[in-house]
């Protein structure tokens, strides 16, 4: 390993840089997902249920890409932010489900 590709963190361990290749791939994939979602909605000729399901699926993929590559949640040492995000998702889903039950009651 050359010193150009590595840095030393607080613990004295070497950390290899990813480089721009993965970020460029993630960016292209994000743009592709956005274009597909826009095209599906703009077409207007598809079954609306299918479009909703695909939009939610692509939104989940987009969140995973953003969290993994841009916020670096895939790296070590990010367990507490991940737990916090998952707890927030759990609370939001619980609130939505309870609001639906309250409205139906």
TrEMBL record:
GO biological process, alphabetically ordered: aerobic electron transport chain; electron transport coupled proton transport
Main location: membrane
Keyword Cell membrane: yes
TM spans (from-to): 24-44, 50-70, 82-104
Keyword Transmembrane: yes
GO molecular-function terms, A-Z: cytochrome bo3 ubiquinol oxidase activity; proton transmembrane transporter activity
InterPro entries, per the entry: Cyt_c_oxidase_su4_prok (IPR005171), Cytochrome_c_oxidase_bac_sub4 (IPR050968)
Membrane association type: Multi-pass membrane protein
Subcellular location: Cell membrane
Keyword list, A-Z: Cell membrane, Membrane, Transmembrane, Transmembrane helix
Protein origin, superkingdom: Bacteria
A GO cellular component entry from the record: cytochrome o ubiquinol oxidase complex
PANTHER family the UniProt entry points to: CYTOCHROME BO(3) UBIQUINOL OXIDASE SUBUNIT 4
Family: Belongs to the cytochrome c oxidase bacterial subunit 4 family.
Protein name: Cytochrome C oxidase subunit IV
